[in-house]
Structures are given as structure tokens and as C-alpha cells.
Amino acid sequence: MKPLKKQILGRLEKCYSVSAMQVRGETYFFFASELAHDGVFFDAATGNRRETFVSPGGVMSMIAWPGGEGGFLSVFGFYPPFQAAGSGLMRTVFRENGPESREILRLPYLHRFLLTQTGSHCWLVAATVCRSKAAKDDWSSPGYVGLFPMNDQGEILCDKPEILLDGQYRNHGMSRGTVDGRSAILTASDQGVFAIYPGELLRDWQILRMTEDASSEAAVFDLDGDGEEELITIAPFHGSSLSIYKKAGAGNWEKVWTCREELPFSHALWAGWFNGERTCFLGYRGGRRDLLRIRFLEDQWRTDVIDSDVGTSNLCVVRMGKEDWLLAANHGVGECVLYRP
User: Fold this and answer.
1) How many angstroms separate the CA atoms of 69 and 50, rounded?
2) DSSP-H helix ranges across 18-77
3) Cα(232)–Cα(217) distance, integer angstroms
4) Cis peptide leading into 3, omega within 30 of 0?
5) 2-11, 92-101, 223-232: which range is least confident on average?
6) Of 40, 72, 36, residue with least CA distance to 57
7) Which of 30, 81, 142, 205 is the most core-located residue (most Cβ within 10 A)?
8) Partners of 20 in the β-ladder
9) How many whole angstroms separate alpha carbon 166 and alpha carbon 99?
10) Does residue 79 carry a pLDDT above 80?
11) What is the pLDDT of residues 139-197, one digit of tens each?
């Protein structure tokens, strides 16, 4: 793979979350801060800053409304260090005079969420990192994964979630993947990594515990090309260990590799195809604050540095024409960045 070229699209203090989304048929790159700042977005075709979108800040994640033209949802009010008793969810839509945002949900300590459709049903899957806090280091209260039904207009149809998975201390990670040939939502907490299989009705949802090892982030992808997915984790909470697991029998996953380097405050994790190569990206926010690329080459795991002293908090890969591009919220230096071939 050729070295990736770095383009700094803009600056945003404590840039935390990133997403690529469609607005009226055009692709834009969105970035938001964990501080009380508005978000910004950039034209993918030119790299030029388009404008801001109003936000209270504390934005942990942003996800497009299904269909591409319905705007997006974003977590708000999750400020450092874990000041999130007033966090919730916003809906941003694009009017003729620009983006318009409004609050649609208050959910204390909401950190991650995903949207999924099963048949005619649309669901908001919400993960709280905890329920309450007396101080920064108070983790006595567990978080949970909850389910809200939504309608086609993006309205939440109930006040309280149906709890899918409770007792999740430091409930931090959430991603999509394929586990045992089925589409799943992965969560990561002190209790391990879980695969949640959506169902048509609430009673049809299923949960599989993949590992009991305390984890902060998780992804699944066939990185070594053997035809079976690997489980990739950051451990423990905001931890310094990157590990890879392989399936070892029904419902069992065995750790087969751990990066020898300490990767303090690992935070950003992505795995999938990137310009024709099986690739994992990881960003860590302590120590050298590197952005890394992990691949399986010549029968061994290889780690390469893409960028240093940037402290990436979140990543997004987007297909642009015949290329895959990597977007990074480089939290440590306040950069909104594009890496491309």
C-alpha cells in the first residue's frame, strides 16, 4: 500500500467525532468537538469548509439517518471528564437556509448509539457508559444498552428504553460487524465484548458474549484472509493493549496476538477493506499518540505508523470513486484530517 497523504481540512479544539454523510446527493465530512463548540463540515470534492452546524458540543458520535437525505443524529452534552448527566441525542436536518438542529432525547451518560432497521421497524440502539457519577473516577454505577423504537420521521416513540443488556460497567464501545455470518452490533465494557443480533420484534433480539475480557472497543473482520472473522479489541477501558482473537469452537474466542507495544489511552478502532487490503486502524491518545495501521503480511502481524503526535479519538472510512479515504478526528492537536492514497 502506498503511503497515505495527509490533508488538514480544518481546526477544531478537542475534535472528537467524525462521519461522512450525504447532503442532497453530495458527500460531506463532518467533525464535532467534545467541548461546547458547534460542529463543522467540509465538501468532500474540494476539501473546503462548507459551514457549521449548531450543537451544544460534547458530541461523542454522529450517524446519518437511513436513506441519505434525512440529516443525522448526534450525541450531545457528554463533556470531559465524564460530565454527562445532561447528555442526549440531537437531530440535524438540512433546510434551504442551512442545517437546523433540535433535541429529540435526553438520556444521562449516553455515549454511543446506532440505528438499525429490521423489516418495517427502525430502532435506536443506545449505550450509556454508566447511570450516574459522584466524581470522575466513580464507576460504581453500571451502564446499559437500551432499545428505542423510532418512526420514519426520526421521532422516538417511547420515553424510556427497553433494556437489552444491563450491568455493563464502563460501557464504552459500539460498532457494527458480521459474527457467524449474521449482522451484529458489538458492544465493549468491563464485562467483555457482546454481539447483539437485531430481530424483527423485540422478543427476537439475541445476545452472544464473545469474550469476558474487559474491553473498551471492539471490531470484527477477516484480517488474515482465512475465511473467518477475527475479533479485534482495545483493552481494558481506555487501555494500552491491542489484541486479536480467533474463534475456537462454538461461542468461544481465543486470543492469538497482542501488540508488543504499549499503546496508552487507545481509543479509535476500525477494521475492514481499505483500498483492496485487509486493514485495521488504531489511534491512541497517550504517549507518542500515533495513528497505526495493522495488517497480516507474510504470515505475521505488522504494525505501521501513519501519523504521530496526533491523538486520534475516532475514525471513519469512506469510499470516494475508486479509492477509500480515511477521516480522523485528531483530538490531541485539534485537527480535522483526511488521509488518502
Assistant:
1) 17
2) none
3) 8
4) no
5) 92-101
6) 36
7) 30
8) 29
9) 36
10) yes
11) 999 999 999 999 887 889 998 999 999 999 999 999 999 999 999 999 999 999 999 99
Q: Which three cell numbers stand for residue 27?
A: 458527500
Report yes or no: 233 and 218 within 8 Å, Cβ to Cβ: yes
Give the three cell numbers for residue 274: 481499505
List CB contacts of 114: < 8 A, sequence separation 6 or more.
Answer: 63, 124, 125, 174, 176, 185
232 and 223 Cβ atoms separated by less than 8 Å? yes
Cell triple for residue 33? 468537538
Q: For residue 28, what is its C-alpha cell?
A: 460531506
Residue 261 burial (C-beta neighbours within 10 Å; 0-12, 13-18, 19+): middle
Model pTM score: 0.96
Q: What are the cell numbers at 109?
A: 451518560
CB 220 within 8 A of CB 177: yes
- Neighbouring CB atoms inside 10 A of 177's CB total 19
Q: Is 39 exposed, middle or buried (0-12, 13-18, 19+ CB in 10 A)?
A: buried
Residue 178 CA: distances (Å) to CA of 26, 165, 220 = 28, 19, 7
